Structures are given as structure tokens and as C-alpha cells.
Amino acid sequence: xxxxxxxxxxxxxxxxxxxxxxxxxxxxxxxxxxxxxxxxxxxxxxxxxxxxxxxxxxxxxxxxxxxxxxxxxxxxxxxxxxxxxxxxxxxxxx
Length: 94
Description:
- Helix content is 22%, strand content 30%.
- The protein has helices spanning 5-8, 37-43, 48-57, and strands at residues 13-20, 28-34, 66-71, 87-93.
- It has 94 residues and is an alpha+beta fold.
- A hairpin with a 7-residue loop joins strand 1 and strand 2.
- The protein is globular, with a radius of gyration of 13 Å.
């Protein structure tokens, strides 16, 4: 998934991936890795970049996406394997 620069240039952005539901293939989870929770909220969420990012994805939503935060070893991947450094924002898009 190619994301707009408005997300990729955000302070603390550390990568992302998109996962499709198995039981519910119409649902997609956009997992964004942040260096800290504060980089996402209030940081990115309060920015003009966030508004532009959401406008770019709006056509894919059938309703308002649900945002939740996760952390832990299961989220740590690749070159950033410190399980304590990962804060992810998951956006469930119906």
C-alpha cells in the first residue's frame, strides 16, 4: 500500500502494513508503527498532515474508521525488534 507523504513524513512514523481480515475480507487493518504514542496522538492526529491523509483514504471507508493502539513483541518486526519501542495505530476500515 502506497501511503501519502503526509503520513510518511510525520514525526515518529516508522513504517506500516495493511492486513485483510480472513473471516471478514471486506475489513482491512492499516497498522502504522510509531516511535511513541505521543507521536501519533496528539502529534499526528492534531496535524494538517493527518487531515490530508484521511481525505486521501475517505473514498475507501463505508463508515468512520475505528482507531486503536497496540504494542508488544508481536508488533516488533524487521530491523526494529525491540518490543518496547513499538507503538502501533491500527485503523479498521469497513
